[in-house]
Amino acid sequence: MPQILKVDPSSWESTLSETRNVLSQGGVIAFPTDTFYGLGANPYDKTAVNKIYDIKGRDPEKPLLLLIDSSTKLDNLVEEPSPANLKLMRAFWPGPLTLLFKPKTSIFENITANLIGFRQPGNAITRKILSTLDHPLTAPSANKSGGTPATTAQQVKDYFGEEVALILDAGECKGGKPSTLIDATTTPARLIREGEISFAKIQECLSRCLQTQEAL
Asked: Mean pLDDT of successive 10-residue segments in the chain (216 residues)?
């Protein structure tokens, strides 16, 4: 059965150490995000990425999105962000907004093609995990494709059993809508998937920023 570790401040360092160990060996972890439990793997490890596609039954043409703990991590990962992306990052990160960027290298062809999605999650536990890694983390929801995403560690265990090496149990996630996915690499920005943040709020933010620039 998968190893389940309670997220407890008293044993935080050992939990993080075990998490790094599993990921370095190509294992898949389950961890809490803003809304559901996600499945994490090192995106540089093609075998680990393929495990996620296999255990979820996910369409191999459907790209995976990545999590980072800080926008500064983007410097070594993507080309210069568009002005619209920068505005949206300032307004909505950390939080449930995934933005598309042009990758700097081909290393991420394991998970995507021309564009790659990143999000800085609002969940403090998730960011703590990410801050100790030297790579981003994949984060598709912990469920079989088409199924209901897991909101508890037990649901993850019931879905996947030994297919997941480690489950970080931080209690029940709140559920709700997924992150909103926006392509702001072009003008105007395009809605790819509406989620927790409405597209109307995205457009309002970009419009307000444009009006501010014009007034200067």
From this structure: 87 93 97 95 94 94 92 93 96 96 75 85 94 94 94 96 96 93 95 95 87 45
- Number of domains observed in the structure of the chain: 1
Q: Which pTM was predicted?
A: 0.92
Burial 165-192 (b: 16+ CB within 10 A, else e): bbbbbbeebeeeebbbbbbbbeeebeeb
User: Beta 66-67 vs 137-138: how paired, if at all?
Assistant: antiparallel
User: Residue 182 belongs to what domain range?
Assistant: 3-215
The answer to whether the beta carbons of residues 37 and 171 sit under 8 Å apart is no
pLDDT at 60: 85
Query: Domain containing 181 — which CATH number?
Result: 3.90.870.10
Give the whole-angstrom CA distance, residue 207 versus residue 213: 10
